[in-house]
Design brief:
Topoisomerase I, domain 2, Topoisomerase I, domain 3, Rossmann fold, Topo_IA, seven-stranded mixed β-sheet, Topo_IA_cen_sub1, about 725 residues
Length: about 725
């Protein structure tokens, strides 16, 4: 009896599919049942071949061999996971298998994972597609009952392949050109470079900024405090003498109430989460990096089956999801959200109509809870936080608006105008789901400088005498540096960085996709183009110099937006992949020519006097995301080691986080306040017999270990660059 091979993207997902399909017999790298054989990839098992595969001349990096334009691009098996590829290939080619079901992640990259494996193995068996948005048993069973023909997704595969080939052509050509031209470990890419350019542009704005001193005037008129307003409605003046003169003139004088207005206001619940919005909130509230949030989401989706597919760019639901909402509400009657969910069910509330829009959902709908109840005890602290964010946003969309009265009082004294503002809550509405310490972007910040107060009952005949005045000074602030949260916003909506008004329409997709933005930010850190100072992202000298060296149009946000638009057309069959790649080849050749003709220079300003133990060249000191590192300047050598790491161990004197430096018996904790403590003494003080805090353990265990990049099809290629 012939069987169907089910190809999942990861072992954990494969095992769950096998359980539901009753494939219980274990074999090498797969699970076997009566009708199905379930096997899995480990992320990408196949990738585009390195330049060396196209000729010996590419084994040596040289400007003379550029641009590299292979024509038909080759596929190669990733060495680190070649064993699993052999297992999958054997199953694909087995005479027992008559057809294949692609069950990788339901998206462009998931399609590429499976199709490259199938293409490389040379199999041409019938293909069906499993396309589901959650990993619950119910969703899996329904998905297998509604399998789609693989031909429906061929254009999606072509778009994914076009993206991969275009990134290879631009990324590897420009990276080799920059590295050879300037003799430094430099890299560029169509998303990474414009994202870095945003950070460098902001840093330049901060450096050029000249602060100006301003003054505000506040008066105590007995029952309340009022703030001076300029003729144009501003709350401050740059004229110190004017501020002091007004302050003297009004002291002891009567204030006349000229206007007292109370207006009813309301705000509706924010839309459901897409991945980027969730990553932003997780960064603002908990300091999680976008990559960390995505990893947590993947666990909640795959392992706990608690949330729907995370890599979505939609904040809407489709009509067919509506009948499942009550079941999802019952699933979240647990923990902090129990009372709110039960209240919604009891009152039979419907989700806001604005959340349902079929036209604004392409591959996947917004992130919402599944119908499966999750034991909260099984979740880690990080998982609980992310899960609760999604659940609370989901519940908020069933509830009424937040209502309040906006009260505004205006006064006059000595021909000068003063105001006082207050707010009276009428109904919490959807905000009842959240705790009082959660801040919302929809809150009125226009009068942020004005004193927050509860206004007393007032009438026009009341007497108000100025008892005291206060002149306060402040300085205008430069633009804020990007945090990971605000950078995600800029990547999602980069249209304000494009000067050509006619081209802004191309920027609907932003820089990269929700699924790739986290990796781009991590790449900026690992390439030492950006370092973290507190919560801020600051470009390094290397990053600033790179933006000066790359061809101008490569750092414009418009490029990647145009690419995404073309890839979308390919996925819908509106244009051909070959046409797109031909344009990219010409573009890559132009970029290489620009780099070759450059007269600029690159300078290492972080050179140490320490030599590399492998090649003898001087090492560079860089600030990694989690601490300082020494790296070899020679791209062919690639030596790197950790010097220090920022730990969670707190200084006993000032309670700031301490750095752990040194090796062996010389390991010591250092604090910016001057406190120093040997690692051995720290262990003894903490009453530990052989282990420190988890982060210290991880540091010691992973001191020379590179971050896992196994799901990146270009990991092997870019690893060789030692960027």
């Amino acid at each position: 009896m012939s069987k169907t091979l089910v190809l999942a993207e990861k072992p954990s997902v494969g095992r769950e599919l096998a359980r539901v399909l009753k494939c219980s017999r274990k074999s090498d790298g797969c699970l076997i049942g009566d009708k199905y054989i379930v096997t899995w990839a480990l992320g990408h098992l196949v990738t585009l071949a390195d330049p060396e595969a196209y000729g010996d001349e590419y084994k040596t990096w040289s400007l003379e061999t550029l641009p590299m334009l292979p024509g038909k691009m080759k596929l190669e098996v990733i060495k680190q996971t070649s064993k699993q590829y052999s297992i999958v290939k054997r199953q694909l080619r087995s005479s027992e298998v008559s057809s294949v079901i692609i069950a990788t992640d339901a998206g462009r990259e998931g399609e590429l994972v499976a199709r490259w494996i199938i293409e490389k193995s040379g199999v041409k068996k019938p293909i069906k597609r499993l396309w589901i948005s959650s990993q619950t048993d119910k969703a899996i069973k329904e998905g297998f009952q509604k399998l789609r023909d693989g031909k429906e997704y061929y254009n999606l595969y072509m778009a994914a392949q076009a993206r991969a080939e275009a990134d290879w052509l631009v990324g590897l050509n420009v990276t080799r050109a920059l590295t050879c031209k300037f003799n430094a470990q430099l890299s560029a890419g169509r998303v990474q470079t414009p994202t870095l350019a945003l950070l460098v542009q902001r840093e330049n704005e901060i450096k050029k900024f000249v602060p100006k001193e301003y003054y505000t005037i506040e008066a105590d008129i007995g029952k309340l405090f009022v703030s001076w307003r300029s003729k144009d409605g501003g709350l401050s003046t740059f004229d110190r003498e004017k501020a002091e003169r007004i302050s003297k003139e009004i002291k002891g004088k009567p204030f006349k109430l000229t206007s007292l207005r109370s207006s009813d206001k309301q705000t509706y619940a924010p839309m459901l989460y897409d991945l980027t919005e969730l990553q932003r909130d997780a960064n603002k509230l908990y300091g999680y990096s976008p990559k960390q949030t995505l990893n947590i989401m993947q666990k909640l989706y795959e392992q706990h089956k608690a949330l729907t597919y995370p890599r979505t760019d939609s904040r809407y639901l489709t009509d067919d999801i509506v009948p499942t909402l009550n079941e999802r509400l019952r699933a979240v009657t647990i923990g902090d959200t129990k009372a709110a969910a039960e209240d919604i069910l009891r009152r039979k509330l419907k989700i806001n109509k604005s959340c349902i829009n079929n036209s604004k959902v392409s591959d996947h709908h917004a992130i919402i809870p599944t119908e499966q109840k999750v034991p909260m005890i099984s979740l880690s602290t990080e998982e609980k936080r992310i899960y609760n964010l999604v659940v609370k946003r989901f519940l908020a969309c069933f509830m009424g608006p937040y209502k309040y009265k906006q009260i505004k009082a205006e006064f006059e004294c000595e021909s000068e105008k003063f105001t006082a503002g207050g707010k009276e809550e009428v109904s919490l509405g959807w905000k009842a789901v959240y705790s009082s310490d959660y801040s919302f972007d929809d809150e009125d910040t226009a009068d942020a400088q004005e004193r927050k107060q509860i206004l007393p009952k007032m009438k026009y005949s009341d007497e108000f005498i100025c008892k005291n005045t206060f002149v306060k000074s402040g300085k205008t602030k430069p633009p804020a540096r990007y945090t990971e949260a605000t950078l995600l916003s800029a990547m999602e909506n980069p249209s304000r960085f494009v000067n050509d008004k006619n081209m802004k329409e191309y920027l609907g997709g932003g820089l990269g996709t929700p699924a790739t933005r986290a990796d781009i930010i991590e790449k900026l850190y690992s390439s030492f183009y950006v370092e973290k100072q507190g919560n801020s992202m600051v470009p390094t000298s290397k990053g600033v110099q790179l933006i000066d060296l790359v061809p101008p149009d490569l750092k414009e946000p418009l490029l990647t937006a145009k690419w995404e638009q073309e890839l979308e057309k390919i996925s819908k069959g509106k244009t051909q992949k070959q046409k797109f790649i031909a344009e990219i080849e010409k573009y890559s050749a132009d970029l290489v020519k620009t780099v070759k003709n450059s007269s600029a220079e690159y300078k290492h300003d972080n050179m140490t006097k320490k030599t590399c133990p492998d090649c003898g060249k001087y090492l560079l000191e860089v600030n990694g995301k989690k601490g300082k590192m020494l790296v070899c300047q020679d791209r062919d050598c690639g030596y790197r080691r950790s010097v220090s790491i920022i730990t969670n161990a707190r200084c006993p004197e000032c309670h700031k986080k301490m750095e752990l430096r040194g090796e062996g018996e010389k390991k010591s904790f250092y604090c910016s306040c001057g406190y120093r403590e040997k690692y051995s003494a720290f262990k003894e003080r903490r009453g530990q017999s052989g282990a420190s805090k988890r982060d210290v353990q991880n540091y010691l265990r992973n001191q020379n270990k590179k971050e896992d990049d196994s799901n990146n099809p270009f990991a092997a290629a870019f690893d060789k660059l030692n960027l």
